[in-house]
Design goal:
This protein is mainly β. It has one helix spanning 109-118; strands at residues 3-13, 24-35, 41-48, 53-54, 57-68, 72-81, 84-92, 98-105, 127-138, 145-157, 161-172, 176-177, 180-181, 188-199, 204-215, 219-227, 230-244, 250-263, 269-271, 275-280, 283-286, 291-292.
Length: 293
Amino acid sequence: ARAFSVSARATRFDPARFAAVPAGQLDGTITASGTLAPAFDVTAAVVLTPGSRYADVALSGTARARATRSTAKDIAVDLHVGNATIALSGAFGTPVDALKYAVDIPRIDELRAPLARHAKWTMPEPVAGSVRARGTIIGDPRSPGFTIDAQGAQLQWGPGLRAKSMTLAGSLAPGITERGRVGLDTRPLKLAVTAVELVTPPVDIKSLRFAADGTLARHTAKLDATGDGMDVDATVTGGVREVKRADGMPDFAWFGSLDTLTNRGTHAVRLDAPAVLEVSRDRLHVGSARIAV
């Protein structure tokens, strides 16, 4: 086995001198040990001291993990990126692994410029607000499950989309267990979304609530929204199915129905009979519907 051990300290280290990456000034330490061949198995720890900068953003924190070619164990990350913090703990790579995450971004606008410049993300102007998220990524990375609990406040995405507050809570069971792949009908799904004072280009919504419950193969969802001249509620039933694309490759699509739709606002409408819905990667189909006005 090709074993190694390294310990190093960096002062004003600039990774751009050695690779095509953004410039930085990094201070800290790195320790690593393990084997490179025949089996890659490395345990490493990195410490970035306050005062370090990368891609025009202040960067500090600690990270450690034991990594093989397909897994990462004993992950412990506590990273400060500008005003944001990112924490990871646990393991990732096998069906029994779980990786907890926690993300806090007090000011989204402070990250817009470096993300647009160095990560080439297309972001509108302006962006604003704060975001907080907690959750877990569960199982095999080929078909993982997740939990999420997220909140946003005073959000803005471009000139036409903003919200006073939004919440997102949900969970999805993984698609691969220790015994192998599981069917879509045995993967429980829950999702709940709320929004207050949601402003969009076509309509201003005072409050919005969306909830879905069931499995990937069969679930129901309900939407309630109120605003200027609107008081809407709707329900849908459906599920995800495996399909084949035109090139023969496997894919997924959603098939279901719009079961009820009512607006008791200024322009009252009511769906008299369910309408078929189909949603895929490149197609949206709405079947014939009877609506009473």
